Amino acid sequence: MPPALYNCKTGECYSSQEEMDTQRRLRDNIGQKIRYWRKHYGYDLSKNDYDEFSQHIDTIKNIHHLHDFICRFDYNNLVGEDLEIYVKNHKSIKSALPIQSYLRTLKKIERKNQFLVTF
Asked: Which in 23, 48, 59, 114 has the greatest CB count within 10 A?
């Protein structure tokens, strides 16, 4: 049986119980945030995506409902419905343009109808 302060993921021992507890809290915090972001913003995230996503979360929470529009956004091709969407959300879209390439790498979770209708 491994020692009490052994970390099976890294193969190292913690120096103290306090260090083990702080590392566990950090891992749990990251996991909770990822679950929250998946549920509320609909992105398929992993622990590897955590650092970059957390840097851009202020912008993403304003434009997550416009994800597809921003991924295909081009100033030269704004006509009809696209122009209307841009006019309504131009501040959010302008703030998201610097991270447009990162937004293209994110995968949206396809959500089916979440409400169950019974008669």
From this structure: 59
